[in-house]
């Protein structure tokens, strides 16, 4: 309990000492190829916001002091993997923190090489697995320089970081089939543990980005699970398999989720459950 209190205290003190937080941005970079024909109305905005949120999550490892980040890092990875994981996130962001010309870390320019399509262009990519997992997205041809990211319909039911969709009755771009997709906020993620309440389209996109070899200095990741019944996009038991964590897309996704929301909400979510 004392250790938990200390972590929260350290995060809170750091937040107060740093009035502005560095944010990963895509504002000045060319977005991936997001064709409005594939994502009509509000869904195109969701995808664009999702890539921006993915950068926020990738940047979360660098926000707090290393001592605070390491307490969460070692829940998901072996401590000796710190530099390798940091390099992977830095590559996604477009450069190491403090590197000349990279202070804003707006996103790696090669993100523009990704073609983003919906599941109706690649329906086979979104079929449920034999062990019952719901597929939210898939990176196709991640071993090439021009991959395709397929975002499945199910992914659009997850809100953005502090962003809701289709909840304004005056928004003419809303998807009537989806209804209101609420924002993911400190209030909605709660204060108890890492859970699917943290799942955003951005965290799903970050997961898929780690499947692209061009962004991963240690090689593209796989979807590794400890049991065949484990949910592909869940967090259950992931914290226990550190031996292969550096090659597991889920480890990057859920470490980033826990790191971001711990720092943003000043909450200690404890060990993955």
Q: Bin the helical content.
A: 25-40%
Second-tier CATH architecture: 3-Layer(aba) Sandwich
- Can you identify the CATH superfamily? Collagenase (Catalytic Domain)
Mean pLDDT comes to 77
Task: Give Rg in angstroms.
Answer: 18 Å
The CATH topology assignment is: Collagenase (Catalytic Domain)
Distance between the termini: 17 Å
Beta-strand fraction estimate: 5-15%
Silhouette: globular
What structural category characterises the helix and strand content?
A: mainly alpha
**Secondary-structure element string:** HEHHHEEEHHH
Q: What is the number of beta strands? A: 4
As residue ranges, the low-confidence spans are 1-27, 226-240
CATH class: Alpha Beta
| Main sheet attributes: strand count, strand direction, barrel closure | 4 strands, mixed
């Amino acid at each position: 309990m004392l250790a938990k209190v200390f972590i929260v205290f350290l995060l809170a003190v750091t937040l107060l000492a740093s009035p502005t937080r560095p944010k990963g941005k895509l504002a000045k970079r060319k977005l991936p190829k997001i064709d409005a024909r594939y994502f009509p109305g509000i869904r195109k905005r969701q995808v664009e916001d999702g890539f921006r949120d993915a950068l926020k999550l990738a940047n979360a490892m660098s926000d707090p002091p290393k001592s605070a980040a390491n307490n969460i890092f070692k829940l998901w990875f072996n401590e000796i993997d710190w530099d390798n994981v940091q390099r992977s996130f830095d590559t996604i962001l477009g450069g190491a923190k403090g590197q000349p010309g990279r202070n804003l870390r707006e996103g790696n320019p090669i993100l523009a090489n990704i073609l983003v399509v919906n599941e109706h262009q690649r329906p086979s990519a979104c079929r449920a697995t034999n062990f019952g997992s719901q597929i939210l997205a898939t990176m196709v041809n991640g071993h090439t320089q021009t991959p395709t990211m397929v975002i499945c319909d199910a992914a659009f039911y997850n809100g953005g970081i502090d962003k809701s969709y289709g909840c304004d009755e005056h928004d003419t771009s809303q998807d009537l089939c989806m209804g209101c997709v609420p924002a993911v906020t400190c209030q909605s993620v709660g204060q108890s543990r890492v859970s699917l309440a943290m799942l955003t389209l951005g965290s799903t996109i970050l997961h898929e980005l780690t499947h692209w070899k061009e962004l991963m200095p240690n090689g593209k990741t796989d979807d590794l699970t400890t049991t065949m019944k484990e949910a592909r996009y869940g967090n259950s038991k992931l914290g226990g398999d550190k031996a292969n964590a550096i090659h597991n897309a889920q480890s990057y996704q859920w470490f980033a989720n826990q790191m971001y929301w711990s720092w943003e909400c000043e909450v200690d979510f404890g060990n993955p459950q």
